[in-house]
Amino acid sequence: MSLRVNAEHVATQASSAAGEIVTEIEKVHGPIWASRQDLCKLIVSLASAILVGTIAFAEKIVGAHNASPCAGFVLVSSWLLFFVSICSSLLTVWYAGIFQTLRARFVNSEPQLQKDASEIKADTEEELVQKAMDLVKRYSDSALNAMKPADERTAMFTRVALITFCLGLAAFIVCGALQVT
What is the extent of the structural domain holding 26? Predict the structure, then answer.
């Protein structure tokens, strides 16, 4: 005798469990992801303002008669570092968007999960339960697979953005110091 699973029940239970998982993940990791995004948005704002301001007044900054010959090189170096920090920050925000789609990935997979569950057949109740559990695990793994690489990338791009912003700021300060001396 072949046993069949109640596909609607499996999909409903899997959806409920997925909702709990997403809520827990958001509770634990959400503040970290939000702080990365906030930091990178701040870096974009500051670096953009510095770039626009210094590019607009570049002639006056390095064109002064007492300017050091290195000042122009250092200023352009700071611009490049600010540009890299802006790009890295934008990549952080881009990859952080993956975190916002976690709940949707679970919800979107529910119809296919229900269809696949309706095709499960087994000879024993234990086999039926195992097949249903394997199916749910496969779908949850599929929804969660994008999380780890996105988390690693946002962490890396946030570090790059912060480091290059600080280096750009240091180069900008050196440029100012070269103008004074």
Answer: 3-180
